[in-house]
Amino acid sequence: MFHTFFRGPTLPAHRLPDLPSRLAPPEQSRGTCAQLDAFNTAPAESARQILLGCLRSPRWADRVAAHRPYPDLASLLAAADEAAYDLTAPDVTEALAGESLPELPDGTYEIAHTALGAAYAAYEARFGHVFVICVDDATPDEVLDRILGAIRSRLANDPEEERLLVGEELRHLAKGRLVRRLGGAENRATSHNASAPGG
Question: DSSP for 109-125?
Answer without folding.
Answer: -HHHHHHHHHHHHHHHH
